[in-house]
Amino acid sequence: MEWSPLEFCLIPLNILRSAGLSCGFKVQFFFGALAITSVFGQPLKVKVKSPYAVLMDANSGKVLYSKRGDAQTYPASTTKIATLLYVVELLDGKFDDECLATSDLLKKVTGKQKIESDYAFPAYYLQPDGTSFNICSNEKLPIEALLYGIILTSGNDASNVVANHLGGTIPHFMDAFNAYLKHIGCRQTHFANPHGLHYPTHKTTACELAKITREALKHPIIRKILNTVEFQRPKTNKQPPIDIINSNRLLKPGKFYYPHAIGGKTGYTDAAGNCLVAIANNGDRELIAVIFKAPEGRQNYRDAITLFDAGFSEKLQSRPLYKQKETNFVREVGHSNQRLKATIKEDVFLSYYPSEEPKIETQLVFNELVAPIKKGERVGEILVKNEWGKLIINVPIFSKVNVKETLFFKLLRFFTILKLIWLLLLVLGVIGGALLIRRSRACQISQED
Length: 449
Description:
Layout: H1 5-8, H2 13-18, E1 25-30, E2 33-38, E3 52-57, E4 63-67, H3 79-91, E5 98-101, H4 111-116, E6 139-142, H5 143-152, H6 156-167, H7 170-183, H8 206-216, H9 220-226, E7 230-233, E8 242-245, E9 261-269, E10 273-281, E11 286-294, H10 299-312, E12 317-322, E13 329-332, E14 339-343, E15 348-352, E16 359-366, E17 378-386, E18 391-399, H11 407-448
Antiparallel strand pairs: 1-2, 2-16, 3-4, 3-11, 5-6, 7-8, 9-10, 10-11, 12-15, 13-14, 14-18, 16-17, 17-18
C-alpha cells in the first residue's frame, strides 16, 4: 500500500490496518497529522473504601484510577506538600535563611471558637490540639529545619513561620501561593492557610493534589524530605537539639509499612477525615496515591496500599504502530518525474501500561526533496507525540529507490556547472592579466632607473 502525504491523512481505518498500523487504535485525521487514541487502554480494576481517591503515574501524569477525583473537598495537612513545593520554588536552592517565630504566628484558638465566631479569626491561627514543631515565641530556626518540621511532624507552627518569613505576612504569602497554584493548572484549589487546619474555603481535589505532588517530586530536596524517617531538630536560641520522627506509617516498620514507599504526607481534621498523599516506586514505575476522608482510622493507608498494589501489578504492553514490510510512503520530488517511495527500516512499537490509555498524534515530515536521491538516503521522519505534545518516538524514513533527475534538469545542472567553470576561468584570467600588467610596469620602472 502506497501513501502520499495527503493520502496519509485521509486513509480509512481498514486500509491503515492492512498497511501496518495496529488495528487496536482509533484514528482521527487532521491535515498534516494523524491523531491516534488507543482502545487497548483498560481502567485499573480496584476498589477502595474512601470516598475520594486518585492514583497517578508520576512520570506520565496519567490518572490510572479516580473516585470522585475532581470533586472539591478538605485536604487537611496534605496541604503541606503544596506549601513545601511553593516554598522550595521561592527559595531556588538557597536554604540558609534563619526565620524568627514571633508570637503572633503561634496564636491558638480552639476549633469550637472558630465555629462559634463563624470563622472570624484569621485562617492561619493554630489550634491547641493541632500538630506542631514545638516552636517557642521568638525562637530562631533555619528554614531548612522548618521544612523538615512541616512534613515530618506536620508542624502547623512551622508552616506559619516559613510563610510569614517569605511573604512578609501570611495573607500576602497565601495570595501569591494561590496565584502560583492557578499558574500550574490547579483551578479548583484554593488554600486559606499554609498548614491545612480547617477553614470553609480551604479546598482542593484529589486529582489536583496529585498533580501538585508530581510537580513537587521534580525537586530533589523535596524527595529527600518526604523520604526522611528521622531528623534532628537543631539547637536554637530557645531549645536544645531533639530528634523528630516522620508520622507517615508507610515508611516505618509496622502494620502499614510499604517497601516501595518513598514518601508522602498524612492529614486529619474532623471535617476532612483521614487523608493521605503517598508516593511509591518499585523500580519500574513511580505512583502517587491521594486519599481523602477515609472512613475509619487507618483506612487511608489501606486504600493507598491497595492502589499501589493494583498499579504495580500491571505489565508493560507493547503494540505495533507501524510494520516495516507493509509501510510505504509516496511523494513527488522536485527535478524528477519519478515519485519517491520511502519506508521505515524496522517495525515501530508503542509501549504503555494497560490503564494508561495512550493518546498520540503522528506527523509525517519530509525533508526538502530534490532529485537525485539515492536508495537508502534518509528523506524524512515520523514524529509520534503524546497528548501534551511531547515527542515520544522519532522514526526516520528512507528512500526505497533511486530517484533520477529528468534530462532537462541534468542538462540545466550541466550547463550551470559549465557556466560556473567559465566564470571561474574568467576571474582567474582577469586576475592573471592584472598581475602581468603590474609586473610589466615594475620592470619598466626598474629599467628607467
